[in-house]
Amino acid sequence: MGYTFWEGILVCNRHMTCNKPATTISDQLIQLKTRGLIIADEPLAACFLSNTSYYRLAGYWWPMQADKINHLFKPNSKFEDVIALYEFDSALRLLLFNVIERIEIALRSKMIYHLSHEHGPWWFQDSNLFINSREHIKTLAHIEDELQRSKDIFIKDHFKRYKNDQRFPPSWKTLEITSFGSLSKLYGNLKPSVKSKDIIAWEFKTVNHTFLPSWLQSIAQIRNICAHHGRLWNKNLPGRPHLLSRPPAPWLASIPPVNEHHMLYVHACCMKYLLNVINPKNQYCQEMSELLDEYPSVDQQALGFPAKWKTEPLWLM
Q1: How far is CA 45 from the centre of its chain?
Q2: 163 and 64 within one domain
Q3: What pTM, to 2 d.p., does this model score?
Q4: Could you read off the pLDDT of 1-58 as tens digits, one per residue?
Q5: Is there a single domain that holds both residue 128 and residue 10?
Q6: What is the rounded CA–CA span in Å between residue 200 and residue 54?
């Protein structure tokens, strides 16, 4: 049976055994330089590696490698460019997190208002309103965990005051501490016969309930990446938003092909569309433009941004 070594992993056709030892920062610098990465300021690089792990940075220098089996870098690849990419990605997460916050609060407010008036304060516990009962049970379990972990005074006071009431607190309390992920799952799982589902979609100008759930799911996934400090640059995002063909508000004149919908640009456009409804005077375009201008070495195409994205009707709002 033949065996080969690849990045410290003993590989055969039946099993893989990792035998790679821990390395010092000095050894990491030597390895990177041996592979062709230019490190002009070694103390700065050592400081950066001591505060940001080698494998966390690997996602940023991966595209710089010409030989990804032996991890050899392309000519003129610089550690300073790795740092710039990393800092750009950090700033990008903060920008998107602020945008998503506005969308999350708006979604929460609309769900509380419309569904509580249509089906009462405890609509979210009514299994008759949901398509998939098993998924509904799972979502309620997550919400219950969130309630149990909550330190908010209004939640603690509710359980103390109504200790004999076995129900969750009413929606205007419970959904205030419910995560965006759980909110998007509740909304997406609502039956089409629930009128509020279409009302909420229409208020977001996404026409009806067939489009908005996929947008919310994608945005919730990006929110989790942001919250856990994950990489967004050059990321194959899991969500695929279902795009409107004729949206009632300004949209894209040139929609990226489906094989590019895993990139950030399409998702950023969905956020911009919703934000234009929530806050028409938002500065999202200006902030994104300034961020990209601040880091000219960043490849915008790795995010899916076309050269003339700022001239699209959506981004002129």
Answers
A1: 29
A2: no
A3: 0.89
A4: 444 444 444 444 456 787 888 899 999 999 999 999 999 999 999 999 999 999 999 9
A5: no
A6: 45
Domain range enclosing 310: 85-316
What confidence tens digit (pLDDT) does each residue in 72-94 have?
Answer: 999 999 999 999 999 999 999 99
Looking at the structure, do residues 263 and 305 belong to the same domain, yes or no?
yes
CA–CA gap between residue 195 and residue 114 (Å, rounded): 9
CA dist 27 → 34, 57, 68, 298 (Å) = 10, 16, 20, 28
One domain for residues 290 and 154: yes
DSSP for the chain reads ---EEETTEEE-SS-EEE-PPP--HHHHHHHHHHTT-B-S-HHHHHHHHHHS-HHHHHHHHGGGEEETTTTEEPTT-BHHHHHHHHHHHHHHHHHHHHHHHHHHHHHHHHHHHHHHHHH-TTGGG-GGGBS-HHHHHHHHHHHHHHHHH---HHHHHHHHHTTT--SPPPHHHHGGGS-HHHHHHHHHHB-TT-HHHHHHHHHTTS-STTTHHHHHHHHHHHHHHHHTT---TT---S------SS-SS---SSPPPGGGTTSHHHHHHHHHHHHHHH-TT--HHHHHHHHHHH-TTS-GGGGT--TTGGGSGGGG-
Q: Looking at the structure, do residues 138 and 280 belong to the same domain, yes or no?
A: yes
Do 31 and 96 belong to one domain?
no
Domain boundary residue, one of 52, 77, 102: 77
- Tell me, yes or no, whether 229 and 137 share the same domain: yes
Residue matched to tokens 């149990």: 148
The region that residue 9 occupies, defined by phi over 0 for left and psi between -120 and 50 for alpha, beta otherwise, is beta
* CA–CA dist 246, 223 (Å, integer): 27
HSE, side-chain direction, 13 A CA sphere, residue 274: 25
